[in-house]
Input
Amino acid sequence: MHSFTLASVALFVASAVAYPTPTGSSVADIAGGSAPNGTPPKNISDAAIAAFQGVNFLENMESAFFEQGLKNLTGWNHQGELDAVIEVVTRVHAQELIHVQTAENILNHFHKPTFSPCKYQFPVSNAEEFLDLANIITSVGIGAVINVASNLALTDPSLVPGPASILATEARHDAFFRITALNVVPNPTPFDTRISAAYALNLASPFIVPGSCAAMPKFPILSTLTQVKGYHKHGVTGTGVPIEFAIDERATNVIGSLFIAWVNQANVVKYTPAKKTEGNVVETVIPEGLGGMAFAVLTNTQTAKDVNALTGITLAGPAPVQIS
Output
């Protein structure tokens, strides 16, 4: 995984205008199917409404990312070397639009507000950076949908099949981006990593042009945590190696012990001691037993065992870290 900063690379900006349908084909034709057409449930909980609004908001961003990515890939495709990538990303984009429609259909059925797209800025300037960021964005989406499905299983079980089906498709997307961007195996772990809605929305925020959203979900704004050291072969870190994170000033004045908490797969949260170094930087060692995409956060306690409890004690983060 590569580190991106808005100052160091060119940005491509996705507009908030409606997404175009590819000429000669419907979105459903390209995606391989349409939004579910079954009978919606008679009732829905407030928690489920909030969950689908979050999905709506995040899928808008993913759709915009792949729409703009297709335009750029076409411009970067000088000798046909990106033809296969463009073919796959065309289908990915259409499938993300169907996911947007799926969330909106549920919200519209119950007369609840939906979110229109914002304007977005994605820090990529070539095909490699696009594919690398696609892997990160897709991993975030997978983690968020795992959380949605897990919560719906408790409050609205009849609504679980939709997000569960989306998960399988998103996993196929991520497998392609892992192979193409990182040249690593598509299936690094037996489980993907669940993240909270607050984590997912904080990870999406840097890509949103400030002031461009007509409305946004409510979520706690967390201090940023950015990986600055620890890259190894193929952009993955491995384990048992040092890693550094930059933290913003809001999280630098904490007194006492600091820890990096690691969220990975279906396991309890792991903690490693974090030491402040020069500037607003903390250093730790990546623990053994992690794989695939992990999410790291800064905290000053080791009490939380799962990601939702950890969200409430997070000082900064999360930062996606590609372990393997």
